[in-house]
């Protein structure tokens, strides 16, 4: 319509590249913890199903009371071998049920997305990633000449978070009634003061798209740095947790042997 198809396509290309890069960063941050937890779960399952029963047969020949920790682990192993399908059904059913509820229930989606925003560190990454998507999408559409109120609907759908999606639609309604964009954003309490100030400067100077692009660049860099910090922080934390779990199982199995050795 405006005769600038090449310019708009170039901006759209940049937008898509930036958005995909941001998604890849967040996915890469989640991959290592998820993979490590999965391996830890597999190792724990192998210990409970195959290793601990061997020790249990050995302990029966001792003819003495087992330490409380060992008894608890043996009971857990017996329960897991008999009722493993309940644990599997609970985990799989919980994941599938949560995914379906997130897709079909607006109330559950609002609750879950709001809960994610309150999780330490991860919530910050999600919040800044959402603001970056908001700024990048609105900048691209504004530069392409799409009317602001119309653009806000697309921006809301592209936000990726139910809390921000609802907030952006409130901003759209406020702008549609004659309010300024920066005041509507400030009233939503979803954006940092720096973001609203940048938008206010853009509105005064007639360069909203340029200012939003700067906001998007800033927050994308922030997400990149936070992902790197989180990955380096979570590696030793997850290894410590897995070490406690697996090490606790091993120690529980060797406690009766140590006790027997001390008697002799």
Which terms summarize this structure?
264 residues; mainly alpha; Receptor-associated Protein; 88% helix; elongated
Structural write-up:
The chain is mainly alpha-helical. The protein has a single domain, classed as Up-down Bundle (Receptor-associated Protein). Helix content is 88%, strand content 0%. It has 9 helices and no strands. Helix 5 packs antiparallel against helix 6. The longest helix has 56 residues. It is elongated and about 85 Å long. The termini are far apart. The mean pLDDT is 83.
Please sum up the structure shown:
The chain has helices at 5-60, 68-104, 106-118, 122-143, 148-158, 162-176, 181-188, 193-205, 208-263. It is mainly α and 264 residues long.
Annotate the secondary structure layout.
Blueprint: H1 5-60, H2 68-104, H3 106-118, H4 122-143, H5 148-158, H6 162-176, H7 181-188, H8 193-205, H9 208-263
Helix count equals 9
CATH domain class? Mainly Alpha
What is the CA-CA span between the terminal residues? 92 Å
Count up the domains: 1
**DSSP, total strands:** 0
Order of helices and strands: HHHHHHHHH
Main sheet specs: none
Taken as a percent bin, the fraction of beta residues is under 5%
Question: What portion of residues is helical?
Answer: over 70%
Q: Could you list the spans in which at least 5 consecutive residues all have pLDDT below 50?
A: none
Q: What is the overall pLDDT average?
A: 83
- In the CATH hierarchy, the third-tier topology is known as Receptor-associated Protein
Relevant CATH superfamily: Type II secretion system (T2SS), domain F
Structural class: mainly alpha
General form: elongated
What Rg, in angstroms, do the CA atoms define?
A: 27 Å
CATH architecture name: Up-down Bundle
